[in-house]
Design goal:
alpha/beta; 2-enoyl-CoA Hydratase, Chain A, domain 1; seven-stranded mixed β-sheet
Length: 257
Amino acid sequence: MDHGKLGITIGDDYVTTIEIRKPPNNHIDIDIVDGLIETLNDLDEDPRCRAIVLCSEGKHFCAGADFRRDGSTEAEGIGNRSVYDEAEKLFATRTPIVAAVQGAAVGAGLGLAMVADFRVAAPEARFSANFARLGFHHGFVLSATLPRAIGHQRALEMLYTGQRLKGDEALAIGLADRLAPLAQVREVAHQLAVEIATSAPLAVESIRQTMRGDLTDLVRTVKEREMGEQAWLRTTNDWVEGVAAMAERRTPNFTRS
């Protein structure tokens, strides 16, 4: 199957592979998110699928939104509908997901990686919530997902500083669940997905719902907060400076204005 910028392969081992095909950076956009939502919902009803591997073609897993010099981005869709509006729907699906992260998972790309139940990373992977370095508030419901994975204090450090964590550093704090050589990241992710798919599917789904608890409701709540904060921060001079500094590959000079 093929769904626009996604390639979908249903295996005979009850594992389906979803590949994002927008190399090399696989920048997030509304088409990719819409495609993922539709595909994940379809796979929830497909008896051939009990676990999913989410991966990307090219150098990076997802390098976030592709910000232009004016601060606009492909992450905004028709009528300014954005990936942040739609992101909560990704958390309402039922099938376990293993992400294979070979390169950058940055900004919204980190948010996308956090949709998965597990993350398999290469040493070359880079995880970063770089929003504050752009003069921006984080999005993609990282307020809900990041602290659940690495704890509140670690999440604060990532969000405040925009620090980049390599694969081994991500593994050490629980942001990644397994580390694999670059050439074997997908294979190891697939092996984990097969382990999940071998278990009783109704039991796994039930356990997943229990362990996620109020995540779906929390995602909905924090999305509204995140989007509101993003909206006013995009009117500031610091936002303009942050985007310009990123484009020019220099240190931003923020002025608190």
